[in-house]
Amino acid sequence: MVPTIKTADHPLRVEVDIVQARHLVRKWAEQLGFGIVDQTKIVTAASELARNTIVYGRGGEMQLNALENGARKGLELIFTDKGPGIADLKLALQDGYTTGSGLGLGLSGAKRLSNEFEIFSKVGEGTKIIIRRWK
Amino acid sequence: MERIPILRMGEYLLVTIQVDMYDQLAMTLQDDLTNCINKNSSRGVLIDISSLEMVDSFIGRMLANISSMSRVLDAETVVVGMQPAVAITLVELGMSLAGVKTALNVEKGMALLQSAARVDFEVDGADD
Lengths: 135, 128
Description:
With 135 residues, chain A is α+β, with helices and mostly antiparallel strands.
C-alpha cells in the first residue's frame, strides 16, 4: 500500500464541475512537482473521465490522492458513479467505441495518458475508475 | 450566456480562445462561427489556442468540426499556437487532428490563409 499524503473529493454533477476538476488536478500535479507534459496528460485524462462520469454515469465524484512511495511521488484519481455500469469493458476500452455521441476516445485515451489504470464496473450498480500517474 | 468573441478582419474571422473551454461554450462557438462565415462570406478562419492549457477529445472534436464545416462553406480554418505539451497529449489521446490545418503562430497562420486564397484566385483566373 502506497502512503497517501493528501486526499480530497470533488463532486461531478454538472458540466462546470469538469472545468473545476481540471483546475484541481492541475494544481495538485503542479504541487507534486510534475513537469508540464505530465501535468497536461493527467489533466486531460481527468477531463475525459470526469465527462464520462457525468454523461454516462449520471454524476458521481472524483477523489484525488497525492501518493508518496519513498522518493517517488504520484497522483491518483478515483472516479466513481452509481450509473448504469458498463456491460462489456473490453469493448468500452476500444478506440472509437461509444454508446453516446462522442468520439469513443475518452476511456481508451485516458488509459494511454496514465501510468496505471484500473476499471471496475457492474451493470446496474455503477463504475469505478482509478488512474495513477507518477512523477 | 458566455460567448467567445469572433473578430472580423476583411474576409477572415479571428478567434482567440482565452477562457476555460467548457463543453457548452465549445458548441456555441461552433454555431457562431458557421453563422459568421455564412453572413460575411468569409474565406478563412483563424483560431488561436495558445492560451489553452489542455485540449481533450471534446475540444479536439470541436476544432475538427469547425474545420469541416467551414470547408463546406468554402472557408479555410487554421488552428494556431498549440502548446507543445498539448500537442503531445492530444496525439497520445488518439487525436491527430487530421484534416485540421495548423500553424505555429498567428502570423504564420495568416500567411497560410492568404496563400490558400491566392491559389483559389489563380485557379479561378485559369478558367477564364
